[in-house]
Design a protein that fits this description.
383 residues, 6-stranded parallel beta sheet, 14 strands
Length: 383
């Protein structure tokens, strides 16, 4: 990750108590200096005076040394920091924000918390922000227009976030213009949004590659179990993955009218669909392309219940790289959601440093991971 200004003077510390060297007990710090904004962003409480006295410098010098703003010799800075550590004094982020105009807080918009993909993205975002000295404020953005306007018009405008990362949400041009007017950088994850930097995968290519894998093994009766086209989130992932499957089938001359069944994007949805489509040995496919790994895992469980050996009589491939995929020996097209989050943080922090940077549309590379759920079809089932 690129170098950024030292965040240690600006993070959200709680400085409720410090240890007095003179009398050996903890006393509450409660006397703010009204000149704090002139002291480089360090709250000048009684503790700051203690730091200065212990280090043998003025209070203003101690403030500059702790905030990193203004020149202090390396030797003096080290002496002041040692004194602060000795009495447990830390700098106030609130006072620092008055000076810099930044809160070191990034707002993250997300449509749902229960899906593993979003949790993995958030883990990558939070880890990268923490490493850079930033906090995270999470907003769950529903489809309710009034609630959405409230998030943008109130929380993001008035609650002191420096930038915004939108996960799986197609931000409107009006919303982009609002954030831009406030000089708040915006980065999206999950699909292209004109005018802002984004990080995403090519969902059409992912499904096409999964289907190509099965065709290459010799399968001809291939079914796609994917998400309902009438109920999908922003960026139309269900539609894109169905398109990829059909492009592959049509390219091989294997297109057929019964190539798709809509199912819930879950293990339970895949299990129910698997029981339905695999029960008849005459009509069932020899291979299934699942719209996501959860569906694929549900199909594997259904096949086991029905006594259908995988991959000898049924091949199954998923998309996404779910943490359970390895345990189920599932062949999958792997993306790394946490890495998307980490990269989004880099893009947004770069734009906090230089708001003139052009938008970037970054496509994360996909990886084909072949495991034990796919093989060539049984000889009697070819053709």
């Amino acid at each position: 990750m690129d170098e950024h200004p030292d965040p240690h003077a600006d993070v959200d510390y709680w400085n409720r108590f410090h240890k007095s060297r003179s009398d050996g007990y903890a006393r509450r710090q409660s006397v703010p200096d009204t000149d704090a904004r002139h002291n480089g962003g360090v709250t000048a409480m009684a503790g700051l005076a203690d730091v200065a006295a212990l280090a043998g410098v003025s209070k203003a010098t101690a403030s500059r040394a702790l905030s990193g703003r203004g020149y202090v010799s390396p030797a003096t800075q080290a002496k002041v920091k040692d004194a602060a550590a000795a009495i447990g004094f830390v700098a106030s982020a609130t006072a620092a924000s008055l000076v810099t105009g930044q809160s070191h807080n990034v707002g993250v918009l997300i449509p749902v918390l229960s899906r593993w993909y979003f949790s993995e993205v958030l883990e990558g975002v939070e880890s990268a922000l923490r490493e850079a000295g930033y906090d995270l404020t999470l907003y769950r953005l529903s489809n309710d227009d009034v609630e959405r306007r409230r998030v943008f018009d109130y929380f993001l405008m008035r609650k002191g976030v420096d930038a915004v990362i939108a996960v799986g949400i197609a931000i409107s041009q009006e919303e982009i213009a609002l954030l831009r007017s406030l000089r708040k950088p915006l980065v999206g994850i999950g699909g292209d949004v004109p005018g802002i930097s984004t990080v995403s995968i090519d969902d059409v290519a992912a499904a096409r590659r999964a289907t190509d894998h099965l065709i290459g093994l010799g399968h001809r009766r291939i079914l796609h179990l994917g998400g309902d086209l009438e109920h999908q989130m922003d960026f139309h992932v269900h539609e894109k993955r169905l398109r990829g499957v059909r492009e592959s089938l049509d390219g091989a001359g294997l297109g057929h009218p019964d190539d798709f069944r809509p199912v819930p994007y879950s293990i339970q949805g895949g299990h129910a669909a698997g029981l339905a489509v695999l029960a008849d040995a005459v009509t069932r496919p020899t291979a299934i392309v699942a719209g996501c790994d959860e569906i694929a895992i549900g199909v594997l469980i259904a096949a086991r219940q029905l006594g259908i050996p995988v991959p000898a009589r049924l091949s199954v491939v998923g998309i996404d790289g779910h943490p359970l995929a390895e345990m189920f020996q599932l062949t999958t097209i792997r993306q790394i959601p946490s890495a998307l989050g980490t990269l989004a943080v880099k893009l947004v922090l770069d734009r906090l440093i230089d708001d003139e940077l052009d938008p970037e549309a970054v496509e994360w590379p996909l990886e084909m991971v072949v495991r034990g759920s796919t093989t060539a079809p049984f000889i009697d089932e070819r053709g």
